[in-house]
Amino acid sequence: MTFAISDQTKKTMNTILTTATLVLLTLCMNAQELVSNTGSVSFITPKDADVSATSQSLTSKINLDTKEIVFSVPVQAFTFASSKMQQHFNQEGVMNSAKFPKAKFVGTIVTDESLKKDGEYDVTVEGEMTIKGNKQPFTAQGTMTVSEGTIEVTSSFTINGFNFGVDSKDFGDVVEVTLNAVYE
Fold first, then answer.
1. Residue 107 lies in a domain
2. Structural domain includes residue 19
3. Under 8 Å CB-to-CB from 153, ≥6 apart: which residues?
């Protein structure tokens, strides 16, 4: 079966597709999405101050229009003072980094502020944290500093490892986490 399309219908469809394409391109260009590839995240256990690690491999993306924010860090990128502790951290019974290579947070910044004007903002993020394949609701507070188009986010919070299937007497129930990301 063949359908004949009139020239007027072709012109109308062409106009609609062109308009839709321009609208989508405009929306994409106006969306202010910034990326940080040089973030850091560290943790320490209150149980034993010698059990601490840092990663300089935190990546993050923030959309200032929708206020969506994502943080991701490769689990094996955490470095410890002791290589033995680092091996223990990555093994199957603790973080199982071979099976679960990343820890991730996906959420939204909860504020009525624009976040596009220079200034320092106390912010709350709400979303889901995924560690070892276990996704849990998560809320944290932080500070966002906006200066001449550059944004810096800092936050300190605690994570209960048992909520995410991390079961290790060396790391205790809770770790104190500090993160920093700069977006340009």
1. yes
2. no
3. 36, 60, 62, 69, 123, 142, 143, 144, 145, 179, 180, 181, 182, 183
Beta-carbon contacts of residue 115 (< 8 Å; ≥ 6 apart): 64, 67, 109, 121, 123, 144, 146, 151
User: What 3-state DSSP class applies to 173?
Assistant: coil
pLDDT in tens, the chain (184 residues): 555 666 665 565 555 555 544 444 444 434 589 999 989 999 998 877 778 999 999 999 999 999 999 999 999 999 999 899 899 889 988 899 999 999 999 999 998 888 889 999 999 999 999 999 999 999 999 999 999 989 999 999 999 988 888 877 766 678 999 999 999 8
Structural domain total, the chain: 1
**Within a domain: 16:** no
Q: Give the global pTM.
A: 0.80
Question: How many Cβ atoms are within 10 Å of 68's Cβ, its own excluded?
Answer: 16
Phi, psi of 37 (to 5 degrees): -110, 5
- The C-alpha torsion from 181 through 62 and 158 to 124, rounded to 10°, is 120
Question: How many whole angstroms separate alpha carbon 132 and alpha carbon 91?
Answer: 12
Element (H, E) at 147: strand 134-147
Tokens matching residue 121: 């903002």
